[in-house]
Amino acid sequence: MFFVVSKIIYFFIVPFNWLVALLIGWLFVKNPILKKRLGITAMVLLFIFGNQFLLNKLVTVYQPSPVTLSASQKYSAGIILGGYESYERNGNGFFNSASDRFIQIVKLYKQGHLQKIVVSGSRVEGLKVVAANFVQKQLIEIGIPPADIIVDGNSRNTFENAVFSKRLIDSAGLQPPYILVTSAMHMPRAKKAYEKAGLQVVGFPCNYVFADTPFHWDDYLLPKAN
Q1: pLDDT at position 128, please?
Q2: pLDDT tens digits, residue range 65-78?
Q3: What is the largest CA-CA distance in the chain?
Q4: Which residue has the higher pLDDT, 100 or 53?
Q5: Spatial distance between the Cα atoms of 15 and 77, rounded to a whole number of angstroms
């Protein structure tokens, strides 16, 4: 139930969907005053939510700062959240633009900060694929022992990631705290979900897709589609 509700809520909070709804209304509404208001509102939303400068400023405040671990900082487990892998129609997996999550968890393990890696993946809707299995295969292929990989292949969202990760970690008898690796934009919400599930985690944000970049005149004037 939570999974369905979360998808519905996400649909209604995405500004692009507001824009589409306003434009559909603008096309079909006959009242000239209401038509004009819908058009103006759509243009205002386009320039607010498409403003790269404004987005960068807000996101750099929201994103947590990068974390650097000292050589002495070691943890029983690092948890990596899914979303950095995608699948084509036959179920073959490949890394996508969020693959920095995978890179960072591997670096932490290879540098001796982690004893185990908990792959908190998901079932891929519409395909008979468990995302965590693809990730597990990649980890093994680069030399990480199977015994050091713990796989959750049942979760479908961040809330379930946290709940199922706790079950696996408790079963393995791993001692807190644990490193949590996910994208910087995702970290605040993910960390709260894991703490609510009863896990003591240290956030290790990565995949910084937004940054406080130098100013360009078109950041103000031209809305960006992305």
Answers
A1: 60
A2: 999 999 999 999 99
A3: 69
A4: 100
A5: 37
Of 37-41, 53-57, 103-107, 165-169, least confident by mean pLDDT is: 53-57
Q: What letters, b where the CB count within 10 A reaches 16 and e where it falls short, cover 165-190? A: bbebbeeeebeeebbbbbbbbbbeeb
- Exposed, middle or buried: residue 67 (CB in 10 Å: 0-12, 13-18, 19+)? middle
Query: 126 exposed, middle or buried (CB, 10 Å; 0-12, 13-18, 19+)?
Result: exposed
The letter for the amino acid at 116 is K
SS (H, E, C) the chain: CHHHHHHHHHHHHCHHHHHHHHHHHHHHCCCHHHHHHHHHHHHHHHHHHCCHHHHHHHHHHHCCCCCCCCCCCCEEEEEEECCCEEECCCCCEEECCCCHHHHHHHHHHHCCCEEEEEEECCECCCCCCEHHHHHHHHHHHCCCCHHHEEEECCCCCHHHHHHHHHHHHHHHCCCCCEEEEEECCCHHHHHHHHHHCCCCEEEEEECCCCCCCCCCHHHHHCCCCC
Which two three-digit tokens encode residue 55? 């987005």
Give me the half-sphere count of Cα atoms (radius 13 Å) on the Cβ side of residue 156: 10
Q: Which of 91, 5, 93 is nearest to 119 (CA)?
A: 93
Determine the pLDDT at residue 127. 56
pLDDT digits (tens, 9 = 90+) for 78-134: 999 988 988 888 778 899 999 999 999 999 999 999 999 999 876 666 556 567 788
Q: State the average pLDDT over residues 48-61.
A: 86
